Amino acid sequence: MPKAQLLLVEDDSALAELVRWHFEREEFDVQHTGDGEEALLMAKERTPDLVLLDWMLENLSGIEVCRQLRKADNTANVPIIMLTARGEEDDRIRGLEIGADDYVTKPFSPRELVARAKAVLRRVRPALAGEALRFGDVEMDTVAHKVKRGGKQVPLGPTEYRLLKHFLEYPGHVFSRERLLDSVWGHDSDIEIRTVDVHIRRLRKALNEGFDSDIIRTVRSAGYSLDQDAV
Amino acid sequence: MPKAQLLLVEDDSALAELVRWHFEREEFDVQHTGDGEEALLMAKERTPDLVLLDWMLENLSGIEVCRQLRKADNTANVPIIMLTARGEEDDRIRGLEIGADDYVTKPFSPRELVARAKAVLRRVRPALAGEALRFGDVEMDTVAHKVKRGGKQVPLGPTEYRLLKHFLEYPGHVFSRERLLDSVWGHDSDIEIRTVDVHIRRLRKALNEGFDSDIIRTVRSAGYSLDQDAV
DNA sequence: CTCTTGTGTTACACTATTGTGACGGTCATG
DNA sequence: CATGACCGTCACAATAGTGTAACACAAGAG
Fold first, then answer.
1. A195 CA from C23 C1′ (Å)
2. Per-residue pLDDT tens for A214-228?
3. Which of B101, B128, B155 is the last residue of a domain?
């Protein structure tokens, strides 16, 4: 299983080390900085899977970092957990409204922090949390690399598997062919766009074998998405 | 108006009413029960968008309800926030590990609970966290490329979709046919002006199917706009 | 009321987009 | 190194969506 990339932004270095230790023990890959500006650069360069963000920073307030992260394309969807000494209700609400996914007040239990991090990750990137991905009656076991529909195993080729996985990670989202080429085939591949159609076709065929509803929706001139009810 | 469906499972009825009041004020549609078995039935019948789940229930423990919800196809992906009097770290961690998305200990601030609920929803169903375009009873989820009126899905072609999106982005604004050609078709297209009428017609037809009010207003010699009470 | 202008409605030919099956090549794997 | 699974591409078929014209209808001006 690939490790989850964690970006820890915290200027109390003793605390940072403690947190790092707990997360590394849980197979996270931890990057750390105490500086807001630097955090933004690091996030831009290598998109983390999760950000732990201290509210009080030297250069740039945590809340500002949070806002900036939400603005940039590559980090707009990265989950953020705010860490803070402030326990005021209004602050917590403000943090959540600005786009944080969770909010933990100091002093916190590192184990609970890890549990919360996993809960958030499970939601956003289930595959990283070692969770089974599922949508309707389709279930993907990312550890065993197996896919079932209605309890029956579905044989998939590697590309179909990655394609389905991508859809399962963002259930319901419509992806353009271009976007799918980027995410599933890789940023730099010079593959014909229509190749996507063919693999969608193969994926459909495999998934619908023995069923009469099609869980892949074609959105004309936009792309494809998962959908429970074939419209 | 399409609201987020909230299932509240809580056997302290005074508390339940308080929570209900706060969520309804925020445009949630709240269903309530104090019984675990009943909660499962309700969730099965009408899949909620979010579940608030008390840990201590009469029939079935909250944790068991949580587990059952995760098993059923239609509720496997529904986010769950656990409510509990227990503040023990181990309990919190256990709740999160079992698949809860968040965990709030009593006594909690209702406002914070609402903020947390929204944070979770924003992640799972952006369309329900106020990030969808809407006007009156028409709602557009730009991520899933879906349009609903009064909760019922409306099938639209690509051009109708773009046209409606444009109107929704400037609610109430009147656009001339020329302006619409520019914005929706592109300012270099050499399309007949009357084509706009035809697409307006198609959009109307699709949106008004099964309703008797027309939300598109014709402004004679000026253009079209969205309007709640156009006839 | 009648004329003129603007809008609603429909049918239809045409275009764009997507579905599908076949094919040759490649790459692991035994 | 032989074999089979898998891949990307293409050509053609099927389908959905588009623009236009023609006519019907409605609203205001005089």
1. 15
2. 999 999 999 999 998
3. B128
